[in-house]
Amino acid sequence: MNDWAPIAKEYDPLKAGSIDGTDEEPHDRAIWRAMLARYVPNKGVTGDPHLTLFVARLNLQTTEDKLKEVFSRYGDVRKIRLVRDLVTGFSKGYAFIEYKEERALLKAHRDANRLVIDQHEIFVDFELERTLRGWIPRRLGGGFGGKKESGQLRFGGRDRPFRKPINLPSVKNDLYGEGSSDKRNWSREGTRDWRTRDRDHERSRDKRWPEKERSWTWGESERERDSKEERSRGRERKDRDR
After folding, report:
1. Does domain 47-130 have CATH number 3.30.70.330?
2. Which end of the chain, N or C, is surrounded by fewer C-beta atoms within 10 Å?
3. Is the pLDDT of residue 233 over 90?
4. How many other CB atoms are found less than 10 A from the CB of residue 28?
5. Average pLDDT over residues 89-94
6. Domain-by-domain residue ranges, the chain?
């Protein structure tokens, strides 16, 4: 729990498949594939990975010139690589943008995320393929983020960070008074308070008891008196009828 962080420091497919990074068993087949995969980053990719941004969810009509126009606002761009299909040449909807300075990289990472380009809200993050140890791409069951419709959600990245897990053992200890000494003292004091309240309640009830008895006896005498009057009236009516 002490080393927990919303963003993963290294890639673990099992943790990435968990909403809080605490799963012990994979819950879908893609996680099994990612755990068994032995992925080697593309050695043909050049450039400084620590100065490169990953830009996704692009409009398929967006071009390199449009990306350069937008991302040049944050600093000098060294290189733009829009990933295209090898057969058709069409855009796959994501790109890598390398800056010349780290300051421009951080500024673009902070301000360009969820920016709308060609009617599409884009997603911006650091490049993870060459910087995050153990990285497994999406096509092998890894990656981060995902859509709910597909059911293959991955956590630990900027798009879907880990949620803070609930520490169940500490909650159990607190419920049974097994926590710290301060909590134990507090619970004991609380029991004393309840006991004193019970005693006060008993005393007040004892004081009120005679009053209730008097009210009950008064009520009973009234009832007896009414019943006697009813009986006498009934006898008078019978005498008249005779």
Report:
1. yes
2. C
3. no
4. 13
5. 96
6. 1-39+134-164, 47-130
| Distances from the Cα of 176 to the Cα of 1, 21, 56, 172, 184, angstroms | 22, 27, 49, 6, 9
State yes or no: pLDDT of 3 exceeds 80. no
Nearest of 135, 157, 138, 122 to residue 49 by alpha carbon: 135
Looking at residue 150, what is its pLDDT? 77
Q: What does the alpha-carbon distance between residue 141 and residue 135 come to, in Å, rounded to a whole number?
A: 11
Is 68's pLDDT higher than 80? yes
DSSP state of 154: B
Mean pLDDT, all residues of the chain: 80
Q: Which of 124, 120, 94 is nearest to 106 (CA)?
A: 124
Which among 136, 128, 180, 182 has a CA at the least distance from the CA of 39?
136
